[in-house]
Amino acid sequence: MFWNEKAECMNKEEKEKLQLKRLQETVKLAYENVEFYTKRFDEIGLKPEDIKTLKDIEKIPFTTKSDLREAYPLGLLAVPREEIVEVHASSGTTGKPTVTAYTQNDLDIWGECIARGLKMAGAEKEYIIQNAYGYGLFTGGFGIHHGGNRMGAITIPISAGNTQRQLDTMVDFQSDILTCTPSYAMYLGESREKAGIALEDINLKAGIHGAEMWTNEMRKRIEESLGIKTHNIYGLTEVMGPGVAQECEYQNGMHIQDDHFYPEIINSETGETLDYGEKGELVLTSLTKTGMPILRFRTKDLTSLIGEKCECGRTTVRMTRITGRSDDMLKIKGVMVFPSQIEKALLKVSGASPNYMIHVTRPDILDEVEVKVEATKELFSDEMKEMERVEKQIQASIRSETGLRVDVSIVEPESLPRSEGKAVRVIDERNFE
């Protein structure tokens, strides 16, 4: 049931004592070895010895993605370069990528965190893990791989893409666990059906999916199309990669590995720390990372924290499903909207598939929004009247969820682009100059 029961079921007093000890050690390491943090602390007159309680973490300035980009590539190292054994980086689609570096101890901890998540998904040492996250600078593939090795399971490093080979591998190797983005899992489910492969021909038991936002409606579609139980996984390059948090079998929030990462929720506007249950921006501090420690990193991910013990027996703090990113929110006709709200609305309508594209334009002075939604094969074979009826249903559902009137177009199955990595759902062509 547990990979590391002592760490995952620690009582509150023992955990807070451990967190404070590790926080103090990390702050000292960063202050004494990372010029960026030395300057930040000195500017406000803060010393490592001022961190006497966990509450004192609020005295530490935030670290942002732009701080990491300015330190590109290895300006935030806390150890000599010869101690670094692996480097990963974000995609860098909006400027310089953010880089993270690992000592061997960091990799061991990464593997430990992933192994805990694999166990949450029901994995055993004899299981076969089909790892369809991308290998390379992206942390997904290697993160799962390190965890599979730590567990001692068979890991197939198939990486993303080559869908026919993915399906052949599922059948030939009788893979037990599938790891990939949720949008690619959905595509694999569709491809399985199209290829005429019966659920009885594969052996998948669980999926571990992350790296992009997805709704409970999409979860249901994936579980039905692959015959599995799915588990949301969370992580980010800047802090470690996947494995910071993951769902257990109860799918009621993701367990944060809080002996290695200290979570806070803040008000994005004021920076004020919020209580358990209050929704805001997740801030993470690495407690054990030595290669490139990160203090109070603003993730931009919007969620809330659950402090109660889980039904599974774990006492780790949980984070609720991410509903959006503070920097991904769209302001349309004065209304704040997250793509996940539109996905949730359209998937409530029978006949709509989880493949969609949101196209935002401003041809004159007003925003216009078109949502293209792939029809299911059953709907597409129906009369035009039925498709028009479903379009109106989707429009009404989106308006009910967001308050927005949008144009909806039902398009042919498999006509929208597919992604083997993170799905691109929004095309915003407005000119804000």
TrEMBL record:
Listed InterPro entries: Adenylate-forming_Reductase, AMP-bd_C_sf, AMP-dep_Lig_C, AMP-dep_synth/lig_dom, ANL_N_sf, PA_CoA_ligase
Top-level EC class as recorded in UniProt: ligase
Protein name, as recorded: Phenylacetate-coenzyme A ligase
Record keywords: Coiled coil, Ligase, Nucleotide-binding
Entry-linked Pfam families: AMP-binding, AMP-binding_C_2
Protein's UniProt keywords contain Phosphoprotein: no
SUPFAM superfamilies, per the entry: Acetyl-CoA synthetase-like
EC number, UniProt record: 6.2.1.30
GO biological process, one term: phenylacetate catabolic process
The organism's taxonomic lineage, starting at the top: Archaea, Methanobacteriati, Methanobacteriota, Methanomada group, Methanobacteria
Involved pathway(s): Aromatic compound metabolism
AMP-dependent synthetase/ligase domain residues: 81-284
Coiled coil residues, start to end: 4-40
Top-rank taxon: Archaea
Subunit annotation: Monomer.
GO molecular function: nucleotide binding; phenylacetate-CoA ligase activity
Chain ranges of the AMP-dependent ligase C-terminal domain: 334-430
